[in-house]
Amino acid sequence: MAHALRQFLLIAVAALGAIASTAALAAPAGKVTIAWHVTISPSWFDPSTAPPQITPFGMLYAIHDALVRPYPGHKMGASLAESWQESPDGKTYEFKLRPGLKFHNGDPVTTEDVKFSFERYKGAGSKVLQEHVAEVEIVDPLVVRFHLKQPWPDFMTFYGTTASAAGIIVPKKYVTQVGDEGFRKHPIGAGPYKFVSNKPGLEVELEAYPGYWRRVPNVKTLIMKSVPEATTRAVMVKTGESDISLVLDGPEAEEIKRDPRLQVVSSKHASIFWIEFTEQWDAKSPWHDKRLRLAANLALDRKRINEAACLGFCPPAGVIVPRVMDFALQVEPPAYDPGKAKQLLADAGYPKGFDAGEFASIPGFPTVTEAVLNDLNAAGIRVRLRAMERATFYGAWQEKKLRGLFMTAAGNSGNAASRVETFIQSKGAYAYGGYPDIDELFQQQAVERDVGRREALLHKIQQLAIERAMYAPVMDLRTLNGIGPRIAKHTITDVWMSPFPSYEDMELKN
């Protein structure tokens, strides 16, 4: 009996030791520094105002979590919600929260927070969500139902992906106590990392949250540094000052590829560059003439721009819906023909070209900007760069204060319908105008539950945008990211349509 008891105790001690060892291995450790290509805005700590861009999600999905979101192995995975279901008539969506979830301050995550977060949301997609959602019903602390006014096939596209940040849940009690400004100064979320501090314009420090539902993060501390200069980011990853340098320019990425200690990883997200013609609907503007818009399209040497800025990883584009999205029209880009571009300008009454004024361009991509500027000027469309900071650019774009020509990019996920909703149809949050027939087609597809018929409608919209030269698409963006020697697992391509790491899954070398 004594022998048996002794054996039992030995087994128990060994088991406890194994558990302790596993716990020790699971404890977050080490620090990773990530150099960002933009100045990190405090507005990106708060999902309620997220623009139609992927960049803020690089911060939002570190601090916060959503009911449903993309994460490794899941295009649209159950996250804070353990499950969800759509009613047979397509008018109700019910979500069930995982039990025991807590925000970083210890408050429980409840359906009150879900309803509060949705109703507080004012970012990209808010208008279309409000137009379709009739009511958010709290069934109990773990079950919530969204009632739609009519079937809407894209509800989960907008709510469960980075097409919007409406599905990210914030703590009602805390936000109510500190207010919006207080929340941006010290955000509390339910994501894999807790906010520690912010040096505005310089860096943000985050710390692993061991209570994260999906897993305990491997890395204890994340330092997010704002480093807008591409050459500086490249130097940082070479010297070890950063472990990951995001969005390298082509020349710097080419140099890093030659260093055997480092690697360059291209993203797989749904981003694309294009030129907006904001005044094409103004009969008094030169850009009302389709020939000028066609000339701008033919002036761009997209293949050369791709090679110079993206090492050949960024496919030249013919439409502003990224080719990796569902329902994207797969088309060839316009041919590079500067001679025909000049002839079109002459036919439109500008044989010597014309002064097109200032040209704003989304910050962070100097080689793309320079190449596009050079091509436009060489064809006779004389433009001069208007330098802007990233947050200022976004604000001016949203408020429609950017005029004439400007180049932008959008990398949030979704599908062709979410892109048309935001940028192409006339009521889109970022649309400068539109066309009645396109608006009608958009409304038809919005309630069409047959996939084939819906795809045909969305293809027709994109074809009309091409025929009318509404935009000058440049290229699908695949960001080039430098990875330092300390990183064992970078996870940059692990999240569907995201250029950022899956932070909780990153690993350092021993």
Could you please describe the fold and organization of this structure?
This protein has 510 residues and is of the alpha+beta class. The protein has three domains: 40-174, Dipeptide-binding Protein, domain 1; 181-268 and 479-508, 3-Layer(aba) Sandwich (D-Maltodextrin-Binding Protein, domain 2); 271-477, Dipeptide-binding Protein, domain 3. It is built from 16 helices and 20 strands. The protein has helices at residues 2-26, 57-63, 111-120, 126-132, 155-160, 172-185, 230-239, 250-257, 290-299, 302-310, 338-347, 366-379, 390-398, 416-424, 436-446, 451-467, and strands spanning 29-36, 68-71, 74-78, 81-86, 92-97, 133-140, 143-148, 193-199, 203-208, 219-226, 244-245, 263-266, 271-277, 354-361, 381-386, 405-410, 471-477, 480-483, 487-489, 507-508. The strands form five sheets. A seven-stranded mixed β-sheet has the order 8-9-10-1-11-18-12, with helices on one face.
